[in-house]
Each structure stands twice: as structure tokens, then as C-alpha cells.
Amino acid sequence: MGMTMAEKIIAAAAGVASVKPGDIHTVELDRLMSNDGTTHLTIDMYNKLKNPRIADVNKLVWIVDHNVPCDSVKTAASHKKMRDFAKEHGIQFYEGEGVCHQVMMERHVTSGELIFGADSHTCAYGAVGAFGTGVGCTDYLYAMVTGKSWLLVPETLKFNLTGKLNDGVYARDFILSIIGMIGANGANYMAMEFGGEGLKTLNMSDRICICNLCVEAGAKTALMEVDEITLDYLKAHGREPKHSFKSDEDAVFAKVYDIDLSTIKPIVAKPHFVDSVADAKECAGTKIDEAFLGSCNNGRIEDLRVGAAIIRGKKVHPLVRFLVVPASAEVYRQALAEGIIDTFMEAGAIVMNPNCSVCWGSCQGVIGEGETLISTGTRNFKGRAGHKDSFVYLASAATVTASAVKGEIATADMV
Amino acid sequence: MDKFTGKIWVLGDDIDTDIIIPTEYLALKTVQDMAPYAFSPLRPELAGQIKEGDMIVAGKNFGCGSSREQAPEIIKALGIKCVIAKSFARIFFRNSINNGLLLIENDRLRDNVNEGDEITVTINESIEHHGNQYPITSLPQNLVDIINAGGLVKAMRKLNGLD
Asked: Which residues of B touch A218 (CB under 8 A)?
């Protein structure tokens, strides 16, 4: 019987010829990413171990991205703990370079790897055909000390893509549509695999956006077939694939969906659930107080270009704060070189340093009681962006920027 | 902990990790400091009402969202004996086991109970409520061992003869 991509990666990492869904395997991990959300907890636990050791320090990447720069003395202490520990043990460490998943994509991840990240959106790495999955700090600690962990082999939902997205429709609209269709736990414990001719119309930025959000359908990981776009991306970033797995013709999928990309429309996810999706035009006219263009989901140069093209020569609505946060330093400098940062600033946007920002509702741009945010961030849970009685809509870079101009939810063709 | 009885608190579907512990409280020093804010976006008074040995009964996709491990730690710190839900999000599931918090999947109980009711849980067998039995599936023994030890780190210490 054939195997899926997820099964092949686990089999390789477990050193066995084949695996099937439901099997539990001990796997060797290729890479272990952790950020300032929980690394201080991992260090506390590590220091309590009787014989603490790191199995292979070269596998560890630590990234400060959730609260950059520090917003409080407590956060400063937590960062210091992480910084000092990384230095003492020679752990690859980034601070201020960008949101962890974007930094990982730009500098580390390659096809066929099995990666644990102490962050739920680690599934983003599937964009280059790597099995990335989010874990808590205890699982992280165990993997850090032993180099291994256990994995239950997931079933796979397969999405066969055909056609291409229409002008004005983006990868974000596609993945929100999928999450709306299968529900917030529609892929719980499962892998989501994307392939087909339609995939070839999606660039690497689109692919990261799609894989990144799959955890919002409960997915354990997301995976995309390795093709020329993947290989070009890796080459441009100086890397080679570890494996270029494809699912076998006779692989068994829990369910197969055929999706024609040309049927996708601009979508928003309404408060307070990512699967609470609606046609963006149905929500048009909803007043907003703040707009956010950024995050590991939609803060890449391609997203900033989309936003800049919409806002060029226009102004941010006087009653709206428009936060623009490039996902990495590399993205920021590219945006500077292209004049995009100027465009946003001329329009009255607040341009900020690369970090997670209001997407996780901590150090920047939190919203107050009764306020509404439209965001390219990852989640719209109740209270996610600030006060418990506030509201978050999720949408594409285009819809977010158009809404910032209009002062209410709007699609790009409405401004 | 093979069999226990307790009072239940009833919650809905998709109780996410930002509800269990909002981001703004994650900077507090210990989970004990954070515990009073558990579930505060949804029910600010709930954390103060929960007593040692109580249980939570919820709908589908409990614990969806972030990988923040403080979520199961706080539920445990409140004294919650176990969470029974129609389904659990996977990262939360692993984090709970690793922290010694018992989770039980049951898709029928939630719609047949009221808050404040008493239930009796017999591990790996059934839940009893008002004379009705709800069978539950067994957890693999290795996971039960981790929960009984109080979490993965403690289980490993025990396994390695350190405790």
C-alpha cells in the first residue's frame, strides 16, 4: 500500500520502511524551534533536570519575536533568560529579525524535514514540504534533551487544486474558505496535503499563508508537494531539499477534496472563530477602529505590495489606526528598497518593526473595550487582540488595506 | 485515581487557549498567579468558583489555538480533576497529558448534563450521571502512566530511577 507525504516523512524519521495512520513511532527530529512565548518555561524545566543535556545543539533555533522590543520588566527578564541560555549553550539565536516562522522559512527549513516548534503555527513549514508541528514546552524539552519524540501517524486530508485565483482574490481567502468548509476541528489530529495543477499557480508566499493557517482547522501539519517553485525558493535561500517526497498514487487519504481556485471569493472570518467565515462583501460597512497588515501569515513582501498598490495616493481613514508590520527584517528592507514603506507612511499608516504585534494581543496595538480590528493575523478568538469585549475580523492584505482606507470593512474594488 | 466523583462546570464548543488564559496574563510569574484569570474573557467569575476535585464538561474542540502550555497547567492548578469534552484540539491534548491533566472524550455527556450536577468517573470504563452510564474509551497505558506520575518530566524521572 502506498504512503502519503506525511507518512513518508515520519517513516524516514523513524527509520522504518513504512507506517500507517494510528501507528505511534519514535522519531528523530531535524530541527527544534522555540520563541519567547514559552522558552523561559522550557529553561526553568531544563534547569530542574538531574542530568540536563542537549542532544544536538545544532538542531535548536531560538527566536525572540512575540514581544519585540520588550514592553515590560517581566518580559525583559524572560528575554534575558532566553538570551543568556542560548549564549551559554551555543544555540542559534535571533532577536528582532522577524516572526519565528518567517525567519525559519528564510533561513532554515527544507523539504522532507520533521520539525517541532513550540508554537502552533509551525505547520507553516509544509509550504516547502517539511512536516512542521506545534508542541508545548514539555514536549519541546523532551525533544531538546533526547533529540527524539513520539508521533501518532496522522490520517491525511487531500486537497486537489485546479484553476487559479481570480484577480483580487488571495491565498488567505482560499484557506479561510477551506477552514469555513471543514470547520475549526475539521482536520483535528490530521495532516492537510495540497497538490494538483492549481498549486503551481501559487507562489511561496501564498503557500506559507495556506499551510500556516491549517492549525486553525485543527491540523497536526500541512504539506505541499515539492515542485519547481519549492526548489527555486530553496535555491534562492542557499538550501537543498533533504527529501522530495510525493504521496504515492495508491496512498490512502481520509478524504479527498477537489477545489477549483477560480471559485474562491474574498472572505472574512468574523468574531470570534476562524471558521466563522462570510463573503467579505456581506460584511462591508462594518465600522473598524484598527487595521493590521502583518504576521507570519500575511506579512511578506508580496502582501505589502498588495497593500501598497491599494493605498498609494490615498489616506488611512481619520478614525482608523493602520498598523503595518513586515514579517521579517529581510521583508522590511525589501519594502524599503521598493518604496513601499514610504507609500504606507505617506498614507498615514504606522509602520513597525518585525514582530508578532497585535496578532497575539500583547505588546503592540492592542484594542480597547468595544473596538473592532480587521487583521491579517492568525486568530480572531474572543479577547485575542486586547480587551475581552473587542472584535477581530480576519481577511487578506487587500481587504485589510481597503478597510483601513474606508474606515469600514471593504474589498479592494470598493476604494 | 481510578474512580472519583465531583461537581461539574459546563462550557460550550471551541473553548480556545486565549479563553483559558488570555495573553495579557502570560507574563505573570507562576501558573498560580495566572489561575484567577482562567476563562476570564468568557466567565470572569468562574476561576474563583472552581473547587478542588471539580470537573469541566465541554463541547467540541476544547483547547484549540495556541501551544501555550500554561493552559492545561492552569486548569490543573485550579484543582480540576479532569476535562470531559466532545473532542480536544491536538496540541492541547499532548500538553495536558504531559502535565498530568486527565482528558476524556465523550460526545454525549455534554448535552445531557447541567452545571452543578455530580458525575462519577471510572477511569478507562465509564462516566455515571443521574444513573446513566456513558462508556469511555481507554487511554493507552503509557499515557495513563504519564498522567499518574503528574506529567512527562516526572514520569521520565521515575522511569530513570531519579525519584
From this structure: 61, 64, 89-90
Q: Can you tell me the distance from the alpha carbon of A208 to that of B86, in angstroms, rounded to the nearest whole number?
A: 31
CB-based contact B64 A139, cutoff 8 Å: no
What pLDDT sits at residue A154?
97
Nearest Cα neighbor of A274 from A382, A155, A156, A389 is A382
Q: Is B159 on the interface with A (CB under 8 A)?
A: no
Ranges of CATH 3.30.499.10 domains, chain A: 5-262, 269-414
CA distance B119 to B8: 7
Among the partner residues A45, A78, A135, nearest to B91 by beta-carbon distance = A135
CA dist., res. B138 & res. A189, Å (int): 18
Residue type at A299 in one-letter notation: G
Report the percent of chain A where pLDDT is more than 90.
Answer: 96
pTM of this structure: 0.95
Q: Label residue B145 by pLDDT band (50, 70, 90).
A: confident
CATH number of A5-262: 3.30.499.10
CATH code for the domain defined by A269-414: 3.30.499.10
Closest CA to A293 of A394, A410, A168, A166: A394
* Ranges of each domain in chain B: 3-159
Contact A381 B18 (CB under 8 A): yes
Quick: pLDDT tens for A208-234: 999 999 999 999 999 999 999 999 999
Please give the CATH topology (third level) of the domain spanning B3-159: Aconitase; domain 4 (3.20.19)
Q: How far apart are CA A169 and CA A209, in angstroms?
A: 13
